[in-house]
Structures are given as structure tokens and as C-alpha cells.
Amino acid sequence: SRSINLAVIPGDGIGQEVVSQGLKVLRAVLPQDVKLETREYDLGARRWHRTGEILPDAELESLKGHDAILLGAIGDPSVPPGVLERGLLLKLRFAFDHYVNLRPSKLFPQTATPLAGRPDIDFVVVREGTEGPYTGNGGSLRTGTPAEVATEVSVNTAYGVERVVRDAYERAKARPRKKLTLVHKNNVLVHAGHMWKKIFDKVGEEYPEVTTDYLHVDAATIFFVTQPERFDVIVTDNLFGDILTDLAAAVTGGIGLAASGNINPTGAFPSMFEPVHGSAPDIAGQGKADPTATVLSVALLLRHLGYETEAARVEEAVAADLTERAGAAARTTDEIGDALAVRVAN
Amino acid sequence: SRSINLAVIPGDGIGQEVVSQGLKVLRAVLPQDVKLETREYDLGARRWHRTGEILPDAELESLKGHDAILLGAIGDPSVPPGVLERGLLLKLRFAFDHYVNLRPSKLFPQTATPLAGRPDIDFVVVREGTEGPYTGNGGSLRTGTPAEVATEVSVNTAYGVERVVRDAYERAKARPRKKLTLVHKNNVLVHAGHMWKKIFDKVGEEYPEVTTDYLHVDAATIFFVTQPERFDVIVTDNLFGDILTDLAAAVTGGIGLAASGNINPTGAFPSMFEPVHGSAPDIAGQGKADPTATVLSVALLLRHLGYETEAARVEEAVAADLTERAGAAARTTDEIGDALAVRVAN
Ligand SMILES: CC(C)[C@H](C(=O)O)[C@@H](O)C(=O)O
Ligand SMILES: CC(C)[C@H](C(=O)O)[C@@H](O)C(=O)O
């Protein structure tokens, strides 16, 4: 009989609330014969305040034993910026070699968008997850003095770029439009940019059926708001991917709907699924958080574990629910989770 | 009697066409007693193809003698990415210590925007121009092999950050809303980010009348499309400023309208004014380019040289012209330049 051994990291702020709904929908959609085991990990701001611990080795080790991780949100204004992001969230992405940070963007028919003309938006960003300016390289000299120098080093390897570019080609090949756009800034960041472009072109020779395209990151932001329908699959570096996917979320109904998967395609380590949004401490505990991004992240989790039918059912449930939302009274976090759970169970 | 000794670098693609219109409007708006001398510098792709030269020392030296520089656009697909950008455009910004890269964004009443609801947009981005990931630090090891490592180093100094932050506070203080937002990514780029934030807070103590705010760059892109009216003055690093100002241009009518000034506030070197757009080789030589961004850059140039009345007259002429454009037949580059020249002369 089949089973899923899931690690759950609710984290901070609205994390707990949205993760509960994600689990509710997951339980409702899974076939009877699949045994779901979950173990909750108490990590984040409260734990840090209480014990000073961020991610103890024993817990990192224990997380490795799971089939996947569902994460809510990490971060709180009471913790200095970077402590939990670098020490917990990025630590997990790096330790578990989540080199494909997968972020789909789709504008559902009834969903509000700030864009006039409601363009057709349906693309996926493959964001590199283990290199670039996120490596934590760099430092500060004469810190706090008028003579301070602070550096941040973007580290890029052919090894790291090739594997994520190849993954993006595979995804593009599997989609009807078969189009892949590389986004970088190779007219300024010439060392990293040239390497990305060279590898992108070289791997592309193996995918003659995929149409390719290159855009500088600044130009890409323009097209995100003027012509988002031009995009199918985008592959880009860790920092550009961070920026672009928030913008992508904004034009497709907001970060309340944006899902993500931190994927290790080799299966050597568990992949981690999380909404793109943060912990939103201002609305935490009030039942106001939209759990949809977490529920859509659960769909990515299901697909990753081979439950394609169930993943599609979750996505259809969300699409149907979003259609009903237009003009309807606002619902609580729990009510949205309940409605989605009912839909997927049918 | 007064005089302006202007260097003109038309550059590539549509550069020549838009610069001609900028000069036409400049001549029309200047008082009779101001003597305008211009010297054109042949720099860019054609020169590079012809002679292999990008920016010879003698020309760099000669450029120093001018009161200001008007630049059209640099870059052509026939030149490898980075050669002209790094060797000419960025070389000028760095050599002339253009540490304030000023980029105003305003949505004029009749101008098309991709944003539904037409928010009130009127902010200015103060982009640091001489540091960050643009320094050209970094390199590549085992280039072209599967073991390649490519790095890009963002270099940030307290000296460089403080002066641009101070400039931004001064600009915020002089505006009715007196609001300044720092944009960075201090939860990931902790070394540079912490330094920026610390200096931003410290300098802020001298400006109690300015309201301040901090946003991560990813979140900032969301607000650019959902709530751009919240911004007044933004100060940010070189790369984030590059990305954000293209997005800002996109939501305020496109890069056909986006002006910029690369300013050395000390006056030690000439400041340089240029449209944010590129050389657009696909429409070059066809009279299709919109010269408005260049004309608005001329307004920034006038203001920088102390011709405030004339700067305002150019901006009013553009506003009036934009109002008439809505629904009217498209005009050529030349016709738009003529119309603006007539308006400012009145
Ligand atoms: C919280 C932060 C470290 C994170 C990132 O920058 O990757 C977030 O913005 C995201 O996009 O998942
Ligand atoms: C052409 C390029 C080097 C330049 C930059 O990145 O600064 C341009 O995008 C700009 O914004 O002026």
C-alpha cells in the first residue's frame, strides 16, 4: 500500500493557518489506500526567541527522511532580517539541493488583475535555487565605520546552470507552446551572463522543437505587464527569479494565489513546497489569510510525488472556487479551505 | 553672457534621430542670450566596427571639458553583449562618477498605461550609479568547460551609499509628500543590505520631516503595479534601480517616455542625460522612434544646469503634447520634435 511521509513546517505568522488548509485539502484528495503520515517541525521566529535555535542539525537530518516538506511561511519583524531567511529557509533550499525553484503563473478567468485588457497569462518560471547572489558569499570590512566595504558574490557554475537549464527545456518541451525564454543581464553581468547564455544555447541544440528567446531582466519586467502572454517557460537566476515571480504573482491575482516548489529532481533529498507569500504578521491569527497559494503548492507536491490525477483535481477545484469568488462575500481562511476540500473530495 | 558647451553622443540605432529632436527643443527653449555650443562624438557600434575603438582616452579626456553630455542610445546586436555597455556607457558613468542616476516616473493624464484603474503615478527613482553589481568585479574560471565557475561581485561602500542616500533625502525633502523608500533585499544580501539600511536610518535622523519606508525589491515590484501611488522618492542600488525603472517606465506609458540623468552632484565631471530606452535597431532610421524620452532628458539637463524655468517649459510642452496624442494619428519622430519645439518657443 502507498504512503506519504510528509514533514510540515508551519513557520511564522499566517503560516500555521494556511498550512492547516493545505493539509485539509491534501487529506481530502488522497485516495483511501494512501496512508498520509505528517510530522510537524517547530521552526521559525517563536522557536528562535525561545531557544535561540534556528535549524538544529538533528532536525535537518530528520527532515531528510521525509518524502516531501510542506512549508507555510518564515519570518517576523521581531527577528533581524536575514537570520531566519538565511538560517532556515535558504539553508533548507541549499542543504536539500533544491536547484529547481518552480513557480507557475496563471491568470484565472474571474481573478482580479491590475492589468487592463486582462491578457492571457499562463507561464512557469524555473528559478535556479542553489547559486547566484543567494550563496551567502561576500562580507563586510570595517563594518559600521564610514570606511565600510560590503560585498555580495554571485557564484555560478556550469554544473549548476546546466542542470536547471536542462530541466527548463524538458518542461518547455512538454508544454503545447514549447517556448523557453532565458532572462539574465548579460550586457552588464558579463561573466555569469555569458556562461548562462552559452549553456542555454548549447543545451538548446538537443531540443530543436523548443523555440528560444533571450531577454535582459529589465526588459522582461516590461513584458510582464505589457505582453505577459508572450511567455511560456522562463529560466533564470536565483535573484532575477525572486523578483520576477513576485511581479508575476502581482499580475495574476496577487501573492495570495502564487504557489512554488523547491525541487530536487534527482530525489536525493526531499523537495519542499511553499506559497510564494511571506508570513504577513499584520493579518496573522485573524482568519483573513488566503490559503489558496498553499493549496496550489500542495498540487505541485502531489504532482512531484506522482499523484498527477489528484494534483489536477486540486487545481480544478481552485479554478472553480476562484470563479465563484468574483463578487461574493469574503470568506475566512478556514471557509476557503473547507470549500476546496469539499470540491476535491467529489 | 551665458553659454552651454554640450557634448552629444548620438550612439546607435534610433540614437541619432531622438538626439536631433532633443537638440531642436533645447535650441528652441533657450533664451537668446545663452550661447549653445555642441560637439558631436562618434562613439558606438559603427565606430567599433570601423576602428575597433570603444572610448579612446583622448575622447574621454575631451568629454570632461563639457558642461554636460546628451546621449542617445548605445548598443547593437552585431556587437557582443557587454562590449559597448561596459566599455562605453558604464565607463562614462563610472569615470565621471555619476553616482545619482535620476529616473522620474509620472503617468500623464492622457497617456496609455497597462494598469487598469489608472493610478496616480508620480515618483522618482534615485538609482546608485557607481557601485553594486555594476562594478565589473568578478570573473570566470575554466571558462567554457563543464567545470566553469563565474562570479559577479557587488561592491558597496559606506562612502558610496551615504552620498546617494543623502541626495535622495534632499530630493524627498523638497517634494510635497516628503516620502523616501529604500529598496533592497536585506533579508538575503545581508552584508550589503544591512549596510544600506543602517546608513539609510542614520542619515534619516537628519531629515525628521521625511517619512521613510523599506521594501524588499521583490515586494516593490508588486506595489509598482498594484499601488504605485504609494511611492514618492525611491533610493536603491544600481541593479535594483535598473530593473525597477524599466518597470516604472512600462506602467507610465512605456520607455518611449522615460528620461534619465546620470548626475555628478559635485560638478567635478559633466553629468550625462539619456533616455532610458535602448537603440531599438528594428525601427532605426524609419522616423518611428518617439523622441519624448530624450526631450524629457533635456529638461533634466536644463534643470541640472540651472535653467529651471526652461526645464519646466519643456515638461509642460510634453504634457500638453501627450494630451493631444490620445486618439490622434501617429506622427514621425521629426513631427513630434517640431511640435514640441513650437510649444516651448511660445
Ligand atoms: C524570504 C526570501 C528569502 C525568499 C527569497 O528571496 O527567495 C522569498 O522572497 C521567496 O521568493 O521565496
Ligand atoms: C544598457 C544597460 C547597460 C543600461 C543599464 O543596465 O544600466 C540600461 O539598461 C539602463 O537602464 O540605462
UniProtKB/TrEMBL annotation, chains A, B:
Main location: cytoplasm
Domain Isopropylmalate dehydrogenase-like: 5-340
Alphabetized UniProt keyword annotations: Amino-acid biosynthesis, Branched-chain amino acid biosynthesis, Cytoplasm, Leucine biosynthesis, Magnesium, Manganese, Metal-binding, NAD, Oxidoreductase
Enzyme nomenclature, EC number: 1.1.1.85
This protein's pathway: Amino-acid biosynthesis; L-leucine biosynthesis; L-leucine from 3-methyl-2-oxobutanoate: step 3/4
Site (described: Important for catalysis): 134, 185
Positions contributing to NAD(+) binding: 278-290
UniProt key word Phosphoprotein: no
Cofactor: Mg(2+); Mn(2+)
Subcellular location: Cytoplasm
Record field: catalytic activity: (2R,3S)-3-isopropylmalate + NAD(+) = 4-methyl-2-oxopentanoate + CO2 + NADH
Residue positions binding substrate: 93, 103, 127, 218
Residues that hold Mg(2+) according to the record: 218, 242, 246
Annotated GO MF terms: 3-isopropylmalate dehydrogenase activity
KW Manganese (keyword) present: yes
Note on how the cofactor is bound: Binds 1 Mg(2+) or Mn(2+) ion per subunit.
Domain of life: Bacteria
The protein's enzyme class: oxidoreductase
Protein role: Catalyzes the oxidation of 3-carboxy-2-hydroxy-4-methylpentanoate (3-isopropylmalate) to 3-carboxy-4-methyl-2-oxopentanoate. The product decarboxylates to 4-methyl-2 oxopentanoate.
NCBIfam families on file: PRK03437.1
Subunit and interaction comment: Homodimer.
Recorded family membership: Belongs to the isocitrate and isopropylmalate dehydrogenases family. LeuB type 2 subfamily.
Protein name stated in the entry: 3-isopropylmalate dehydrogenase
